[in-house]
Hints:
This protein is an all-alpha fold. It has one domain. It has 9 helices and no strands. The model has no long low-confidence stretch (mean pLDDT 84).
Amino acid sequence: MTLLVIFFSSFVIALSGALMPGPxxxxxxxxxxxxxxVAGPLVILGHGILELVLVLALLSGxxxxxxxxxxxxxxALAGGVILLWMAISMFRGLPSLSLNxxxxxxxxxxxxxxxxxxxxxxxxxxIWWTSIGLGYxxxxxxxxxxxxxxxxxxxxxxxxxxxxxxxxGVAKGRRYFSDRAYRSxxxxxxxxxxxxxxxxxxxxxxxxx
Length: 209
């Protein structure tokens, strides 16, 4: 019963995090219009590989280092700058965005690698793991390998379910999308990235000063 609680609570908590807009959601929406419903699962595969590596690193003793104030400042400031750059680039590219993309253009990007890179670009991701995620790992490890496995399984399943749903919805709704609606959607994502950038830059500078 305890193991089931770990699995389902991990799923719910991870889903609440997945629902937050960020770089991963932005690239999933964008690539789903190009590559179809497969985009979301492939992006999350890369995301999941990175998270598995991080969980193993936290279990191996990396947690105290990541929880240091100076590390938080570096993560927050560097992540804030990256998010700011992404948001500005997206705003600048809005006028030329179009759903009419040739087949050759659709296959250029490695979506698994994209999932890894865009996860790293989000400071919220690493901060979540060094706080909420680490707390769950500490609790789950009391129940051995099964506890850690079910924690991670519930977590990654929530990410996969949400992003597969988003990818499927965007891909199947593409025929009903106009270029204007597509630009509005990407513009909205860019706006949220801008808010996140400001939040992390503010928190990083506040901790630094």
